């Protein structure tokens, strides 16, 4: 499948932009303001695919991505890229000598959450402002040099927006990675990527029959006795009433002719709803 244009959570120099250049270094890309805008841009044909964050080691799922895909625009996952995340504190060069006196910290909610301990220890009396991305925070700080504010963002953003990094690697846990998904209208093969894939996954959305004792146990058994290795299971609200949840399950292999189709048939026989969200290669950087 020929990808010409990629939409991503912008502005320039977000972590999502890094994910895009890692996987598609030579493709044209378009920064968009929010995750829903990236997904809508694929639906409207403005871009061929979107790359958006879906999960972080420290903070967990990016709920906006999951919910928008499930409830609003059912795009397919055609690939995944996992990149290391280093969060840095940066200020306008005017404030690099007195950065400890900053009065506000701007960043994406996920980035602020990844640095929670650091912020609690160092800036307990500072207020936090959420932005649409880490790079949006860096851009805001560069455009407001007289305010004593800092941004949490990556090295690329510091360069792009002319900020000084005053404290490096402020994320609370060392092993910090984010998974990004590549979304397309259809189930298509992701080819012409520069990296060798690290493996394959299939993602299913499963709903349980209501009020059935042991239903989740039965679902998991269907995978277990076929020795299908699951790399993730997560529940999210259906948004239809308290206690109504769906499950997202990642299987560590591609859709095949036998094992996954027979699991789906077994789950449907148990009156579960099953939807395939994608079967795709992943790339660990
Ligand atoms: O703000 C960015 O730079 C993003 O790409 C978004 C995002 C996220 O939503 O999790 C991506 C990676 C980091 O975990 C922090 C923020």
Automatic annotation (TrEMBL):
CC per GO annotation: cytoplasm
Domain ACT residue range list: 204-281
Pfam (any one): PDT
Keywords assigned: Amino-acid biosynthesis, Aromatic amino acid biosynthesis, Lyase, Phenylalanine biosynthesis
InterPro entries named in the record: ACT-like_dom_sf, ACT_dom, Chor_mutase/pphenate_deHydtase, Preph_deHydtase, Preph_deHydtase_CS
Prephenate dehydratase domain ranges (all copies): 5-185
The keyword tRNA-binding is assigned to this record: no
CDD domains found in the cross-reference section: ACT_CM-PDT, PBP2_Sa-PDT_like
Protein name: Prephenate dehydratase
Organism per entry: Fredinandcohnia quinoae
